[in-house]
Amino acid sequence: MNPDRNESPLRTLTAWIGEARALGVKDPDAMALGTATAEGFPSVRTVLCRAVDDDSIRFFTNYESRKGHELAANGHAAALFHWRELERQVRVEGTVTRSSAAVSDAYFASRARGSQLAARVSPQSQPIESLDALLAQHAELEKELAGRPVERPAHWGGFDLRATAVELWLSRPSRLHDCIRYERQGASWVATHRGP
Fold first, then answer.
1. What is the 3-state secondary structure (H, E, C) of 179-190?
2. In the predicted structure, residue 126 carries a pLDDT above the cut 80
3. What's residue 164's pLDDT?
4. Of 124 and 189, which is predicted with more confidence?
5. How far is residue 8 from each of residues 53, 121, 132, 147, measured CA to CA in Å?
6. Domain positions in the chain
7. 143 vs 134, 137, 140, 163, CA distance in Å?
8. For residue range 158-191, what is the model confidence (pLDDT) as tens digits?
9. How far apart are CA 174 and CA 167, in angstroms?
10. Architecture of domain 9-109+154-194 in CATH?
11. Are 152 and 105 in contact (CB under 8 A)?
12. What Cα–Cα distance (Å) separates residue 158 from each residue in 48, 97, 146?
């Protein structure tokens, strides 16, 4: 692996997501997102990365979910992309801030209507009476809003994970994998090869 050390490693992430998509990999933008409480107790779950630029990756969620509360209390997070078919992975570490309301509104408007309704009724990470009751709420809201757009609820929106470190990993024989770690220094990146 000989990536350009003068450009953001997130450009390689974008390219690898594109390659995985071209191969027909299901959810090529899926990533494991690690967060932690203010006391440092970690948790991890899979979310979808919905945007990548030279500085950050973006995902959307319920701000009142467990991850939403943890990110409010501890603004550090890590993400892992893994494509078995490509024998590659990317790790991203950094700090997290909420996306703007305009960005969240625009993405919410692009979602399938059923997903928009689910964001309105689902108390993510909270106890519920039953799945049947939640499905009934979903159906009731669909009737109530028939023919009208679904507005983004204030408790749902985007997060931007601004990368402070990125690790690109490529499988090789005998477990002598190729790994380059990029660390942000000011406006540029410093890259070093790491042992597998």
1. EEEEEEECCEEE
2. no
3. 97
4. 189
5. 9, 39, 47, 44
6. 9-109+154-194
7. 14, 10, 5, 42
8. 999 999 999 999 887 676 678 899 999 988 899 8
9. 20
10. Roll (2.30)
11. yes
12. 11, 9, 26
